[in-house]
Design goal:
The chain is an alpha/beta fold and 510 residues long. The chain has 3 domains: 30-37 and 48-193, ANL, N-terminal domain (Rossmann fold); 260-411, Rossmann fold, CATH 3.40.50; 413-509, 2-Layer Sandwich (GMP Synthetase, Chain A, domain 3), CATH 3.30.300.30. Helices cover 27% and strands 26% of the residues. The chain is globular and about 70 Å long.
Length: 510
């Protein structure tokens, strides 16, 4: 069978207008396959893959998953390191019409099991054992063998581009993660718009060090880069020396990193300015990155730090600084061309320039819609979506030039070194301890990480809390970055007349 004669992929799509995404993920490689199939698509610790090789492996992965019993609409979970295997598995799942569920390897076993149960995943690809997973676990070696043994003919499944394709798990006020559901069409759109609006082409070498199991990273790696017929560098290190080595060795031009890592690089005695000499832009969270860190990094390495604002529900990037590197202090760039952002009052009315309210995101044209909803949570979906407008839960305003300023995180989100920590999730684990009557978790400022996690705990009647034992117990239930680094026992937490905790009074009690 001719490799071009595939369902939904009969020929490269040349009719698309600038900033228009391919119809399905199976078509995202078409531009590069048509121009130069031997061009390097992906570089990981296992080595480079050409577009032709990635295309063949994606077809094999789709058939391997099918052979393991996965069908269109089934949820496929993956907890794999940043390497070829996870990228290939993702593309295979998309060609099969399955729903991708990324499971961060840093999550504790109870957290991983919850994601599997909540999503109803039938299969999990993993490089580590997970007893009582509730789903069939296929270990990495077995997955690699299945891909090698599979036929590389296209699977020939007609995928619905608007059906659920991926779950991006994010926590809410209940403390239990909930999955934002996205279609293939929506996963492809941010990459299409970023490539068009930022003028990316085959010279782009985009490096990313965040876990690929995060759905947003699938959006910002091969789903973005292949639309420029460029090269995606998926790093397996997230320390200063490791990232610098990747950038130097692979001549990375655009890199996406957390503020804590920018801080470490700017102060490193082992990383020289020339090590990052190939970079022409660095992305980081605008509201999460203190201006002194941004200034120190730019002064040392001579590269602009591009502020961004993103949401799992959007998905990913909502606003970004201009390509020329111009930055407004305290802002997170301007909305992407296909999006409109407004600040609203409690009644949903648009606030004037400079007035702070809840930020809402909606379409600026007919290409966009936000997430399909939260998986299995109609009430949470109704609260977050007002028609086709997404209520972000973040507080902020827009200035007269259209820059988005995120001034606070609603729902009390803690940003620790670029990682999201939801207080309610940690509090849920704390109050499950028999000696803890109540708990309040919050962030405290930190120069390097942005925030660290702190907790106040109220003992039960007649109970004595052993802080060291409590911390040890938390480490068995939560990812390490979520475990509070400061735990203080208080006689009683401050409450208002309604019995709710007065969070403004918490830091003083530390």
């Amino acid at each position: 069978m001719d490799r071009a004669a595939r369902s939904g992929r009969d020929r490269p799509d040349r009719s698309a207008t600038p900033g228009t995404a391919p119809t399905t993920v199976a078509r995202v490689l078409d531009r590069a396959l048509g121009e130069d199939p031997d061009r390097v698509a992906l570089v990981t610790t296992s080595g480079p893959l050409s577009y032709a090789a990635l295309d063949r492996l994606a077809d094999r992965a789709a058939r391997a998953l099918h052979g393991l019993g996965v069908r269109t609409g089934d949820r496929v979970a993956a907890s794999l390191p940043n390497d070829q295997d996870v990228v290939v598995a993702f593309h295979g799942a998309m060609r099969l019409g399955a729903v991708w569920v990324g499971v961060n390897r840093a999550l504790a076993p109870p957290e991983q099991r919850h994601l599997l149960a909540d999503s109803g995943a039938t299969l999990m690809l993993s490089d580590h054992p997970l007893p009582d997973a509730g789903a069939r676990v296929v270990e990495l070696a077995a997955w690699q063998a299945a891909v090698r043994a599979a036929d590389d003919r296209p699977i020939g499944i007609d995928v619905d581009p608007d059906a659920p394709a991926g779950l991006a798990y994010t926590s809410g006020t209940t403390g239990r993660p909930k999955g934002a559901v996205h279609s293939q069409r929506n996963l492809l759109l941010p990459g299409a718009v970023l490539v068009a609006s930022r003028g990316y082409g085959p010279e782009l070498r985009k490096g990313d060090c965040f876990p690929f199991t995060v759905l947003n990273m699938a959006v910002l790696t091969t789903l973005l880069v292949s639309q420029a017929a460029a090269t995606s560098i998926v790093m397996d290190r997230i320390d200063a020396d490791g990232v610098a080595d990747w950038i130097r060795r692979e001549r990375v031009t655009t890199w996406n990193g957390p503020p804590a890592l920018l801080h470490s690089l700017a102060r490193s005695t082992t990383v020289a300015p020339d090590d990052l000499g190939s970079l022409d832009e660095v992305w980081t969270g605008g509201a999460d990155c203190p201006e002194p860190i941004r200034a120190a990094f730019t002064e040392r390495f001579g590269v602009p730090v591009v502020a961004t604002y993103g949401l799992s529900e959007a998905p990913t990037v909502v606003s970004i600084d201009d390509r020329d590197g111009h930055h407004v202090p305290g802002a997170s760039g301007r909305p992407l061309p296909h999006l409109s952002v407004r600040a609203t009052d409690d009644a949903g009315r648009t606030l004037p320039v400079g007035r702070t309210g809840e930020l809402r995101v909606r379409a600026a044209d007919d290409r966009y819609r936000p997430m399909l909803g939260y998986w299995g949570r109609p009430e949470a979906t109704a609260a977050a979506l007002d028609g086709d407008e997404l209520r972000t839960g973040d507080l902020g305003h827009l200035d007269e030039d259209g820059y988005v300023h995120v001034v606070d995180r609603a729902n009390l989100l803690i940003i620790r070194g670029g990682a999201n920590v939801y207080p309610a999730e940690v509090e849920r684990v704390l109050v499950a301890r028999p000696d803890v009557a109540a708990a309040a978790v919050f962030g405290v400022p930190d120069e390097r990480l942005g925030e660290r996690v702190a907790a106040l705990v109220e003992p039960g009647e007649g109970a004595t809390i052993d802080v060291e034992a409590l911390t040890a117990a938390l480490r068995g239930e939560l990812a390490a970055y979520k475990v509070p680094e400061r735990i203080t026992v208080v006689e009683a937490l401050p409450r208002n007349a309604m019995g709710k905790i007065v969070r403004a009074e918490l830091p003083a009690l530390l």
